[in-house]
Fold:
Amino acid sequence: MSEIRFTDQHEWVRVEGDTATIGITDYAQEQLGDVVYVELPEVGKTVAAGDEAAVVESVKAASEVYAPVSGEVVEVNADLEGQPGGVNEDAMGRGWFVKLKLSDKSEFTKLMDEDAYKAFVEGLA
Amino acid sequence: MSAMNNQGRPTGAGEATSSNSIQTYTGNRGLRLEEPLIFELDNPGACGVDLDEPDAFTSRLGSLERKARIGLPGVSEPDVMRHFVRLSRKNYSIDAGLYPLGSCTMKHNPRLNEKMARLAGFGDVHPLQPQKTVQGALELMDTLAHWLKELTGMPAVALSPKAGAHGELCGMMAIRAALAARGEAETRTRILVPESAHGTNPATAALLNYKVDEIPATAEGRVDLAAFKAKLGPDVAAIMLTNPNTCGLFERDIIDIADAVHAAGAYFYCDGANFNAIVGRVRPGDLGIDAMHINLHKTFSTPHGGGGPGAGPVVLSAALAPFAPLPYVVHSADGFKLVETMGEAKVDGTDPFGRMVAFHGQMGMFVRAVAYMMSHGSDGLRQVAEDAVLNANYVLASLKDDLSAPFEGPCMHEALFDDRFLKGTGVETLDFAKAMIDEGYHPMTMYFPLVVHGALLIEPTETESKKTLDQFIGTLKHLAKAAKGNDKTLFTGAPHFAPRHRLDETLAARNPVLRWQPAAPKQAAE
Structure:
């Protein structure tokens, strides 16, 4: 059973066991517009919560993707390097960016749940 | 009856025919010419000059000798002339009309500057000429340095950087050298950058291997002072701040910011891109700034991207002055001299961090900037800033009810709008900007600064007349009204009257074709 949480910087993180999958939200991809480039970290790199984990570039802007939780990068979505449009097509699924081996699960539970994030986004409109 | 001329021909425009339905043999449409790439004009053997065939010689290149053509197109001088003149006619330039790009200061480039830059004593000199034969050129560099130091209240200036971002790099290298001199280069690793900064600021910091830390903005579009102070610490090397900032607002807390930066042992880099709004009115040195680049192509009217590299001199505070890069001009009883070596600098009592470029900088730009400064005088430069700010506020005040302004005015040199006025219309900032091309304008800066949604950033500069601004404002009101009236015809697929209609920016970014390839040779008939 996986659980999903969100940040106020519009990243999502889904945890299964001690693996955290990270991406940007559907709202974020919509705001960015067509994604044209994704820069991913090297596998094995350790990131702390709040560190830059990846970069996403659209026709409008380049933005950092921050790690919502701390951990070691165990896998990156190499498909995005050739097909960055995957972020627009399925931000919450196929468009994931990195997988981390979680180092502190309590960081995850502090993040917004789905309802809280939904309310947060509505507040931005 | 209609007006007739004395040969009895009608002088009116005549019956409108649907010009789009007429196909021409050439693909040209009157003065709208279709122009191929210069490689597609290749006529093998054609050349601009006649060169004699070389006499017999023995090549010493061996297997390295080139056997195939090198791929340069064969074109005659008139071919080349027509090609580039035709291309230039597709271009939009400040000489053709209002160019309201925000944060770019697209002001008129006075012709006097051009005349001065073509004087043989400036235009025909070589960097390796003996210095005693170019004393006038060196004096001009010294004069430019003097004006820049006076206008900024700073004791030193490095003239050699070739552009704004290069100037940023130079200023930050001076800061790093100053930190190294006191043994803190290794411990101070973080640079604070406001989230509204020009992209070059974090890029410069990253290039020097610093960690970039963003400072949030307040709801009124300025640096959040409390958040900034909370980020200061013994690992901070510098702050990089633009003032006026990219929202077109003056950072009112700048002296508090400078004091806090210095109390924390760090330096204050100011991005001088927006100096046009304050030239002659505010001296950055008085605000506690340690380094600031000056884009001569913005504030001092040298051409943007015309005729080779630009110039981005950097003024430096007393703390950074000793580390200014080589070369620099000194004046003694023997005349003007370029200090070119570390040995000479040591005698002169300075400690340069090195050098940025091979020679001394971009002479053509120096001459134009000095011509601009001297023809305006100090009172004229002050009026530049006043008129630039007045024009921007005229645009802001005239359009704030038609477009939507995120921050309370008055503004400085540029007027910032967001896309709330387009909400629900199906028209986006991009469509709006493209429709401006059909109206004969270069669009404003869009989607920047990032702190504002769907930003439209307009910098009219002081060189536009009220009449020009009124027509521009009228155009924007017309487009805003059309968008709000759910009339999308002006926007969908715009521009309609440009050499090319809407280009697919996404496809171009995802699959860039950066190199022209000749068409594959036709297969021999079977």
